[in-house]
Design brief:
mainly alpha, three-stranded antiparallel sheet, 3 strands, MED32, Mediator of RNA polymerase II transcription subunit 32
């Protein structure tokens, strides 16, 4: 993470320096277009692109960390794990919703992946009967279904048989 912050900081400083160089070149040329102003503008464009790339890298890092923290919190909540290591096990069980049994972290991860793939498919238009086209089935196949032949029909994922009993 430190390297990403350092990369972003360096790119920003170079971008600002390039902007200053453009202003100075314009001032020296009296506002006229010269080779030095063109060179300064070209350098500015390059630094702008490098800065944008550094921002994208930082954004990807933040998003990755956010998703990991969210997944860990979801697993902790679903499995009844305590958020603080000093809390007794009975306290974490008391925090769980009444009548809902904790599920295993592995099952939760499988369900999470299935939901993610379904969202991706829906975003790409593979979701409904109208998107399936003529002769297409009404069910959704997950990308994992290619290997395992697992399909989701009517909102029930065949990989999770207990979902049908809910």
């Amino acid at each position: 993470m430190d390297s990403t912050v350092d990369e972003l900081s360096a790119a920003y400083k170079e971008f600002v320096a390039a902007a200053v160089a453009v202003m100075e070149a314009r001032e020296l040329s009296g506002g006229q277009k010269t080779a030095s102003t063109d060179a300064a503008l070209e350098s500015f464009k390059q630094r702008w692109e490098l800065f944008r790339v550094a921002c994208d890298h930082a954004e990807e890092l933040v998003e990755s960390i956010r998703q990991r923290i969210g997944s860990e919190c979801l697993v902790d909540e679903a499995t009844g794990s305590s958020a603080s290591p000093s809390a007794p096990a009975t306290a974490s069980a008391a925090l769980a919703a009444p009548g809902i049994k904790p599920i295993s972290a592995v099952r939760l991860e499988q369900m999470s992946k299935a939901v993610r793939w379904l969202v991706i498919e829906l975003q790409h238009g593979a979701g409904g009967p109208s998107a399936a086209g003529p002769g297409g089935g009404g069910g959704l196949a997950t990308p994992a279904a290619g290997a395992g032949g697992q399909h989701v029909n009517g909102g029930i994922d065949s990989r999770f048989p207990e979902d049908g009993t809910q």
